[in-house]
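One example given next:
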Amino acid sequence: MEWTGARYADTPTVEVRRRIEASPERVWELVTDIGLMPRFSAELQSAEWLGEERGVGARFVGRNRHEAFGAWETTSYVVECTAPRVFAWAVSDPEVPSAVWRFTLDALDDGATELAQWVRMGPGRSGLSFAIDRMPEKEQKIVHVRLKEFEQGMGATLDALKGLAEGAVA
């Protein structure tokens, strides 16, 4: 993907897809297990539900660490949850999120699943906003680098989920 010239206010997006040789129901079990996700991420350190609810409106806290941004914690809100098709959450504020993340599962005719992970930056402020405030002349480069990091991280996550769903990884 190419994001040259993207600004944060443009709410740029990234999507990564993988074909997984497993049913959507099996893949759904994995993508909705938020406690599993830190296993696949260099940035996400932990994630845990706040309360018993698990559908739309449910909340979870994520703890993150990044070399350039340090450590931070966010509360995310499930904004879409349609089993076994879509699981999406908004970060920090469901009305004006700093980001929206989504897994989409498409059943294929041969029993496999096409899994997509998608993210949209903004429109709410995030840690990236502070970097842009300090160096507004570098906004496009800052956004580009962060989107590339998202793309690489999502690829690693989908590869790990594929391995688990297909039984290749324990």
